[in-house]
Batch of 3 targets.
Target 1
Amino acid sequence: MDLGPRTSPWDAQLRLRQARVLLVGVGGTGGYAAQSLVASGVGRLHCVDPDVVELSNLNRQPLFRESDLGRPKVTAALATLRALNSDVTVTGERREIRHPADLARLIRTGAPEAPSEPRRAGTPQAPSEPTPAGTPEVPYSSRSSYDLLVLAADRPDDIRRWANRVCLAADLPW
């Protein structure tokens, strides 16, 4: 529903083209969300996931094929998504969210400007930085590098609660 008159029938599509979306978790639900966002023409999509593609993923996760087995999910997802719509800037990183500060840092810093070089299968993943003692649990920020967080990660168990607090602090819809 429009809250005001449109100046052009393309206003909604142009706003979508300018949108910056952070997607955490590119497996089942996240894979379908990523496909829909890229096919719809979202401007920038940054994908984050720590896992590798396993055989048990193939029957329910749309971005992966048998040839992707053992590869980081982000690497395989980026290739599939970029092939779907080359007009969308799709970036990603292999990262695990272990603490609310990890998510806050990710939301604040944003994605690289250019598509990053995919990490090779078997390359160790850099662990998230530990939060120093005395640092607030959620670093408050009035700015976010994104317009929307799509949270499709299934772990850690508290990630939805963390996302709610971090996104409220950053004034970021999720």
Note: The chain has one domain: 15-117+131-170.
Target 2
Amino acid sequence: MIFREGVRPANRLKFATNIANYIKDNYLDGVDIDWEYPGAPDIPGIPPANEDDGEHYLAFLVVLKNLLGDKSVSIAAPALYWYLKGFPIADISKIMDYIVSMTYDLHGQ
């Protein structure tokens, strides 16, 4: 729920700024964001997602990347289409330095 609330328009800038400040204050090379999963309707213990989660996530990532400048920003993305469909992945791929595919989700298939 933290990501869902953090990426909403009312909280987006503050959330991104807090992350960016932490990265800069601690002399880190960048950040990898792992939200499991925007738009997912079936995660146990978490209320069903909103259809606009993915678009809010994209807008948040744009703000974060702009705040971090030349620092690395990446995301972890699910390998399963069921969860990936909530990500506007084509647009996200245009702004991320790289995307890590969570292939461990494919166990037992």
Note: The chain has five helices and three strands.
Target 3
Amino acid sequence: MLAGFVALSVVALVSMGAAAFSQLAARSEQLATEQARIAFAEADRLRRLEAEARARAEASHARVVRGAASFAAETIAREVSAIGRVLQAEAASPLASETLAAAVASPDDPRARKALQDWLESVSRLHEATVISSNWFVTGPDGTQLARAPFGGSVGQNFAYRDYFHGLGRDLDPAEAARLEQEGRLEMVRGLHQTLVYRSVATGNPMTTFSIPISDPTDPDGSALGVLGLSVEIGDFDVLRTGADSDLVAMLVDTRVDATGTAGLILQHPALSALGPDPLRRYLSPELVSRLVRLRSEVMLPLPGRDGQNPGLAIDPNFADPFVGPPDGLGLAAFHPVIARGPDGLRDTGWVVIVQGRRLRPAEE
């Protein structure tokens, strides 16, 4: 009897212990499951926080890039607009037509030449703080440069072949210009004109020139006595300069077709200074140029229903820097046309500012 009772007790105790162990194992499993659930939830929360932080950083980065492109394009546009206003005002002044008429009528009279030179230098000084410029000049009706401020060796040379004189949109071969002039088919610019970028004879630097005719006030038909011009070195648009440690790369592009028949000439880029003697012949891809041309058209002919959005701003999240290329050169870029304003409304320069921010790197673990 006693032995049987002990055996039953042992069995009961073992059963109780097994049940307790089973309950403990179940609770341990539940606890492990709960801890795993909490760990996964925390990892998911951290991933969401990291994604939100990344999204905020990318949004902030995009705002910086967009803002930089808009600021640079609008700053250049204001400078171009100021140049246009000044040229229009000076070309219309009686002193301009009087001094130029005298110099043209008496080409061998040093006093007439000096009066024109003095007038041009006074104009240059007057607007020194108002507009950026490399030089001012006046040409006669045949394209001969009669005055330059500052005075230089180009005075006396003939520039009838230059786009800033005839406004045909490209420089002519000098022989072609002479032939057209002999045939009476080479005319002076008819209004405010901006040239394609070219290399200056005087300095060799890439430049653009803004020119306008000086009309004869005594002629009822308003025939031109000559051309007043103001040249600007592309590098003088210093709003595009970024420091070596900057995360932004700014460039200026001309989307108009140049003398080579190609559009998309890169006018300014931090890498251009290291390219050797001819940094002008670097172009964007035709596909990107087509996109930028459409963007310019949207600004000049804004489409309805934009709800206040900036029609002149476009974004490319995977723009490849033409001087670096992928993968290091990939990053978000903003494009903004340079649209000047004048008395006659908007004036398309053909230029587009591109500002690229380097691709954001993942946070280090």
Note: The mean pLDDT is 83.
